[in-house]
Task: structure prediction
Amino acid sequence: MDAHIEITAQESGERIDALLARNASVPSRSAAARLLEAGLVTMGGRRVRKNYKVAAGDVFTVVLPAPAPARAEAQAIPLDVVFEDEDVIVVNKPRGLVVHPAPGHPDGTLVNALLAHCGESLSGVGGEMRPGIVHRIDKDTSGLLIAAKNDRAHEALSAQLKDRTLSRVYDAVCHGGFRADEGTVDAPIGRDPRDRQRMAVTDKNSRPAVTHWQVLERYARYTYIRCRLKTGRTHQIRVHMAYTGHPLLGDTVYGGRRDKGLQTQCLHARGLKFIHPATGEPVELWTDLPDWFQDVLSKLGAPL
Result:
């Protein structure tokens, strides 16, 4: 479906992505950015950059994708299954795979893969578009993620997230050097008041957030660290590390540059520990560093 937008004098000077986000057919600024990045917004037959400032009289054509289905569909996408029984499944998510369908990502997600692998055996607590999903990790973050195969398991695992008996460990590469060998960031996280698509350390409409970190290796311009989450806020490690002045390598949203040859957000969910919802026994799982992460470490040079 195509939409045509003509710019008025009052709108002149605005960025096109901000203007599109106010259109009733575009759900958010991030969705507008995805339309622009995909070349689905044109003017005179030419694609428009997301930072283009509109002028009165400009006429844009926007190709709107079909609405996402009301229910996620099964798709035969390969899964790296680390642990599975009749109650839970733990997968090692690759970098670049979205966890669940959303505007701009109607399919090709981890949920679609889980539906193909597990059939109808996924909990319904998360809704039609997020069956089984207990917690999420970013598209560009790889590593361990747990899903529930029935409602009882889902409720038990969600309770563990709240009381922090479900613990997660991440490895990351940050810019700069840390003075100490370990430490804790205890700073509340909420929506960035200047940009609602980002999170930030803020006292306004925020929730407590605690990240424990330790240095694994030091390099000339970077540090390889391990983070243990006490809380699980959106983008927590990325926001906390940027707050300390050490943004993640490749995380351009929160200030990490993509240096030559190092074009990725360096964050991997390395470890996962939980109490099995049926047996009551502790389960601890670890995954190896993926090849892309090891390649990044090799490009940093010799540890100091």
User: Anything to note?
Assistant: The mean pLDDT is 88. The chain has six helices and 15 strands.
